[in-house]
Design brief:
Number of domains: 4
Structural class: mainly alpha
Strand content: under 5%
Largest sheet: 2 strands, antiparallel
Radius of gyration: 50 Å
Length: 833
């Protein structure tokens, strides 16, 4: 078994063990195995001897066959050489004959072409003769179809011109005859239809069969392509309607021209709703008939490019669009003569056109209406923007001139309307004004036009902010003069306007415009780059950290619009996916005063810009920030006005002898007499102002007032007074039991809120035990060097580290405790006062 691999050895051993078996006492099977292997050995040796004997004979026969094949190949080569010689000789002898035959075959082909050329003329003449004698419309249409097929086949040369002329000639004849028959039959079916007639008297079957045949004939004799290319088109129509639709539109065009052009009363240019309403009525009355009786004919003829209903509706819309274009142009000419208020008439026409477009979508279930293209022409669109701006500014002035603009929207309705009780009528009117403008321009198909209206909205919001700022300035002067200006209404108006704009900025409409504006700016920058810059599509990192695809130089404006829509949809999807988490957070803080608690916990920083920066305002980012600044300025002004009276009446409280008060038990303590009146007046004014403000604004106002009171009492009372034990207890009672609850949100535990942090920290310092106070005082007196000492090396260092006030102020408060005075003599302490 030498030379075998391990696997082969294992296989042989396994086979032998299997044949012998497990019984070592019975080895008879080994004899059988030995005899079988011996026979196989003999068989293999015999085969090997046989092969050795046959190899010499097979080798010699193979050599003989190879020699014979090589001789045969040589013979074939000699024959091929002789054959080539014979072929060359034959070609030389037959070359003159082949040349003569080529000439004759060429002449015969030319004669055949001439014969086919003459036959085509003869066929045209034959077809024309048959059509002159034929009286059957069906047969005429078939014959004309053959002529038109020949016209499409032969397009060049004199023959093409000849057949084209005949095609046009017979087309005009057939068109005139079939149109005449069609119009006569339309009178039978009482076209144009009326709604009542179509419902009450169904047409007979034979009448409709004839109408179907005539319609099929008209479809089959459609104008040749060169005629279609030269036909004039309407100002708003992209393609010409098919011949049957054109004939169906003729009586309606006549009626339209009769009623709405010329000097008739129904053609008044200040009443565009008349012809728009009539156009819509005709579409409603006739589109079902066209769909059920004309479109099936085109489908049977496999004219897939024909949409009969759309062609019919487009033809009627083109009439209205052409008349609208004329009316808008007439406003300038007649308005200059003093006969018509141009702006009012133009605004009325725009409103009626947009209303017509909305109703048309409902009726036709097709959003592609060419009526809007009249409004988006350059001159008309510029005038539209100017009129919108003019009337919006006038409306804004009327809003603020109205005495009711400061009243709540839900005034007199009751508490059922909830949050609407604080929204001023003026702010609601202004938001409605912006929404009305959006409803008018939202239907425009081009994002560039919608973007210009967005710029107009931003301009109006800025004008609204400027007017509110002017009112705020006037309110500040009136406050200083002792009046009662509508300051809460101004703050609520700014807050409500901003809240609505932030909500709109997250809608799909404004997100698309926002991204389109940003993408368009990138597109413009790409167009101004040098040609050496490679046109690759990268990404632009936005302010919020997300990446936005960059515009490639090869992208068109339509592709920019598509990319803007995709980005807007992705943003809406992202916000929708994050909505459940937001709703869960809102459920945890489901009361109105949750905002109060959050602001109260951060009372030391009442600036609201951080909160405003967290919101992505999109298209309204700039104006939203300005409105937030106006809102905060109004709140600051209101808080300052309320706190001035408190500061003026708190003088007696500041002059109290805190160093000489009698120590009283906590249960016997009550609010200081000098604080009772000012605090009650402050709470009354705060409650009155909070009721007039939005709940979030009321929370901000409480935060501002609390900060003012905290800072004023801390600086004027705590830092300027000496305190004995009785004074400390009284101040602590005033702060924790009276001042803190005064600024705490309703239904909340005031002790758990971080309100008036300076005063509460000062009270904690004043209430320290004598030993602790002395150790803290020693640690603070050593300054920052004590912070580098090891823990426990400086007594009172750990307790001093928990004080949040500045070290100098904390040390000053401790030194003003009478029990910590450096001079133990009470008489000396009294001399200080």
């Amino acid at each position: 078994m030498k030379g075998l691999c391990e696997k082969s050895k294992k296989d042989i051993i396994q086979d032998v063990n299997f044949r012998i078996g497990n019984d070592i006492t019975n080895l008879t099977s080994t004899l059988d195995l030995e005899s079988e292997l011996a026979e196989q050995k003999k068989y293999l040796q015999s085969c090997l001897h046989a092969c050795n004997d046959e190899v010499p004979t097979k080798l010699s026969s193979a050599i003989e066959k190879a020699e014979s094949n090589s001789k045969y190949i040589e013979t074939l080569k000699e024959k091929s050489v002789l054959l080539k010689i014979k072929v060359d000789d034959f070609i030389q002898r037959t070359e003159p004959i082949m040349g003569e035959l080529d000439k004759r075959f060429t002449a015969m082909a030319k004669l055949e072409e001439v014969l086919a050329y003459l036959k085509s003329y003869a066929r045209i003449e034959e077809l024309c003769a048959q059509m002159k004698q034929c009286k059957d419309d069906e047969q005429l249409v078939v014959l004309y179809g053959e002529i038109k097929a020949m016209c499409n086949k032969y397009r060049n040369g004199h023959r093409g011109t000849y057949i084209k002329d005949y095609t046009h000639y017979w087309h005009d004849i057939l068109k005139e005859n079939l149109t005449k028959h069609y119009e006569e039959h339309l009178k039978v079916i009482k076209w144009p239809l009326s709604t009542s007639g179509a419902e009450n008297s169904p047409l007979p079957k034979e009448v409709m069969n004839k109408f179907t045949n005539l319609t099929r004939h008209l479809f089959l004799i459609q104008e040749p392509e060169d005629v279609n290319a030269t036909l004039p088109t309407d100002i708003t129509q992209d393609q010409n309607p098919s011949l049957p639709i054109r004939i169906l539109l003729r009586p309606l065009k006549k009626r339209f021209a009769f009623h709405f052009t010329g000097s008739r009363q129904t053609a008044r240019i200040d009443r565009p709703e008349w012809f728009l309403t009539q156009t819509l009525t005709w579409i409603k009355d006739h589109q079902a008939f066209v769909k059920n009786n004309v479109q099936p004919v085109a489908d049977k003829l496999q004219m897939k490019h024909i949409d009969a209903v759309n062609e019919f509706n487009t033809g009627l819309i083109a009439l209205a669009a052409e008349r609208l274009h004329t009316v808008l142009a007439a406003y300038h000419t007649q308005g200059s003569k003093g006969g018509v208020d141009v702006d009012a008439a133009f605004a009325h026409a725009v409103d009626e056109t947009l209303g017509f477009h909305r109703e048309l979508i409902t009726v036709t279930e097709n959003e592609a209406s060419n009526i809007l293209s009249v409004l988006t022409k350059a001159e008309t669109f510029v005038q539209w923007l100017a009129v919108e701006r003019k009337y919006a500014l006038a409306k804004m002035d009327d809003i603020l001139d109205n005495e009711q603009w400061t009243e709540p929207v839900a005034a007199g309705v009751g508490a059922a309307v909830g949050a609407l009780l604080w929204v001023p009528r003026g702010a609601d009117w202004f938001v409605t004004l912006l929404k009305t403008i959006e409803d008018r321009y939202a239907a425009l198909p081009q994002p560039g036009h919608r973007l210009q209206f967005l710029e107009l909205q931003l301009e109006l919001v800025e004008e609204w902010r400027v007017r509110l700022t002017q009112l705020l300035g006037a309110a500040a002067q009136e406050l200083s003069a002792g009046g009662s200006p509508p300051l809460p209404a101004i703050v609520n108006a700014a807050h409500h306007t901003r809240a609505v704009l932030v909500q709109w900025a997250h809608s799909l409409h404004y997100l698309q415009l926002h991204y389109y504006r940003r993408q368009f700016q990138h597109f413009t920058q790409q167009q101004h780059r040098t040609e050496d810059t490679p046109s690759t599509v990268g990404s632009v990192v936005l302010e919020d950290g997300r990446e936005e695809p960059e515009i490639a130089e090869t992208m068109s404006l339509s592709e920019v619009e598509i990319q803007a829509k995709r980005l807007a949809l992705n943003e809406v999807t992202r916000r929708s996916s994050a909505l459940p988490e937001t709703m869960q957070e809102q459920n945890e803080q489901n009361d109105v005063w949750a905002t109060d608690r959050l602001i109260a916990e951060q009372i030391l920083n009442v600036d609201t810009t951080a909160e405003d920066d967290l919101e992505d305002d999109g298209a309204f980012a700039e104006v939203s920030g300005l409105l937030a600044h106006l809102r905060n300025a109004g709140l600051a002004l209101l808080a300052e006005h309320i706190i001035l009276e408190f500061k003026a009446t708190i003088r007696d409280y500041k002059k109290q002898k805190w160093h000489a008060m009698v120590t009283v038990e906590d249960s016997a303590l009550c609010v200081s007499t000098a604080l009772c009146g000012p605090l009650a007046a402050l709470c009354a004014r705060t409650t009155c102002a909070a009721r007039a403000l939005a709940p979030p604004l009321a929370a901000r106002l409480r935060a501002l007032l609390a900060d003012h009171v905290d800072r004023h009492l801390y600086e004027e009372v705590v830092l300027e007074s000496w305190f004995n034990t009785g004074g400390t207890l009284q101040l602590t009672h005033d702060v924790k039991r009276n001042l803190v609850p005064a600024f705490a949100p309703p239904n909340k535990n005031a002790q758990k809120l971080k309100i008036l942090p300076r005063l509460q920290e000062a009270c904690r310092i004043l209430n320290l035990d004598y030993e602790d106070a002395r150790r803290v005082c020693t640690a603070l007196a050593r300054g920052p060097l004590s912070a580098r000492a090891p823990p426990g090396a400086v007594p009172g260092a750990e307790l001093a580290a928990t004080i949040t006030l500045p070290a100098t102020e904390a040390l000053r408060i401790l030194n003003q405790r009478t029990d910590l005075s450096e001079n133990a003599s009470p008489s000396y302490v009294m001399e200080l006062f």
